[in-house]
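Design review, sub-item: ligand-bound model
Attendees: FS, YL, KQ
YL presented the inputs for the prephenic acid complex:
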Amino acid sequence: MAEGGSGSEFTLDSIRKSLIRQEDTIVFCLMERARFPMNSALYNQSLDLVPGFSGPLVDFIVQETEAVQAKAGRYVNPEENPFFPDNLPPSLVPNYNYSQVLHPGGASININKAIWDMYLNQLLPLFVVAGDDGDYASTAASDLSCLQALSRRIHYGKFVAEIKFRDAPHDYEPPIRAKDADELMKLLTDERVEKMVKKRVEKKAIVFGQDVSGSNNTDNKHYKVDPSVVARLYDEWVIPLTKRVEVEYLIRRLN
Ligand SMILES: O=C(O)C(=O)C[C@]1(C(=O)O)C=C[C@@H](O)C=C1
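KQ shared the predicted structure:
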């Protein structure tokens, strides 16, 4: 884990602390994206805005950014997963010594296609206003921050699954051997924690997203991102996708 440096403290508690910290990043990223209108030309399949590149402008920007970040070693970090993994250049820099706590099978899990689809088609329309201000470069940069923050959080399920397995191998081994995904899903689910997570992210959207003025009057009716959308994001997508990563990881854990 890069989180916490050496990774010497690898416990369910430390992993959950990281998930809590990542909530802050996600809420702030969404608030940044909400500054721009939808700018749908950025996502249009048939508008070839870049000479020599066929596809939406957002694909071009994300692919090119990921290529630079790959050369700088971003994807050597087991926490990071690219959205366009095909033909990524190798890292050109000396490797940072990330602690290797995951089972090697975890490296093949990448559900970014589902995250991309959820973010662009379902989430964005819920929290950005309609319209086009033409500032596609800033909008795409902000989309990429959101996508990377969501991807990191969701793929953190690999670390959660590893620690859950290490804490109770005798519970997990039989359903893993039986490839029983439903039983694994039941074992790893903690409804009390999920409820807390959803409440907390809604509260963070309220606290971080209110307009703060110099006077004592805070405008509590206007938030930068609707807190109920943040709660829904976690309820419908972030937690279920994290659990999907956990199950996929566990299924491979004894290979
Ligand atoms: O904290 C855990 O135990 C997790 O597995 C993470 C998480 C989540 O995505 O927030 C997912 C499944 C559990 O039911 C509770 C929470």
